[in-house]
Amino acid sequence: MPHKIGTKKQLSENVFTAEVEASLICRACKPGQFIILCINNEYSERIPLTIADSDSEKGTIRLIWQRIGKTTAELADLKEGDEIESIVGPLGNPTHIKNYGTVVCVGGGIGNAPLYPIVKALKEASNTIITILGARNKELLILEDEFTEMSDELIVTTDDGSYGRKALVTEPLKEVCQREGKPDQVFAIGPAIMMKFCCEVTKEFSIPTQVSLNTIMIDGTGMCGGCRIEYDGKPKFVCVDGPEFDGHKVNFDLMIKRLDTYKDKEKSSYEKYKEHKCKIGLDKNK
Amino acid sequence: MKEKKSKEFLEKLLEKQTKGQLKPSDRFDIPCQDMPVQDEVERRDNINEVAQGYTELQARLEAMRCIQCKNAPCIKGCPVEIRIKDFVGAIAEGRYKESLEIIKENSLLPAVCGRVCPQEAQCQKYCTVGKKFKDPTKAVSIGRLERYVADLDRDNNSIPEAGAATGMKVAVIGSGPGGIVAASDTRRAGHEVTIFEAFHKSGGVLVYGIPEFRLPKSIVKKEIEVIEKMGVKIVCNFVVGKTRTIRQLMKKDGFDAVYIGVGAGLPRFMNIEGESLVGVYSANEYLTRTNLMKAYKFGDGADTPILNSKKVAVIGGGNVAMDSARTAVRLGAEKVYLIYRRSEKEMPARIEEVHHAKEEGIEFHLLRNPKRIIGDESYRVKAIECLKYELGEPDESGRRRPVPIEGTEFTIDVDTVIVAIGNGANPLIQQTTEGLKFNKWGNIEVDEHCRTSIEGVYAGGDIVLGSATVILAMGQGRTAAAAINEYLARKKPKGAAS
Ligand SMILES: Cc1cc2nc3c(=O)[nH]c(=O)nc-3n(C[C@H](O)[C@H](O)[C@H](O)COP(=O)(O)OP(=O)(O)OC[C@H]3O[C@@H](n4cnc5c(N)ncnc54)[C@H](O)[C@@H]3O)c2cc1C
Ligand SMILES: Cc1cc2nc3c(=O)[nH]c(=O)nc-3n(C[C@H](O)[C@H](O)[C@H](O)COP(=O)(O)OP(=O)(O)OC[C@H]3O[C@@H](n4cnc5c(N)ncnc54)[C@H](O)[C@@H]3O)c2cc1C
Ligand code: SF4
Ligand code: SF4
Ligand code: FES
Question: Which CATH class name applies to A3-91?
Answer without folding.
Answer: mainly beta
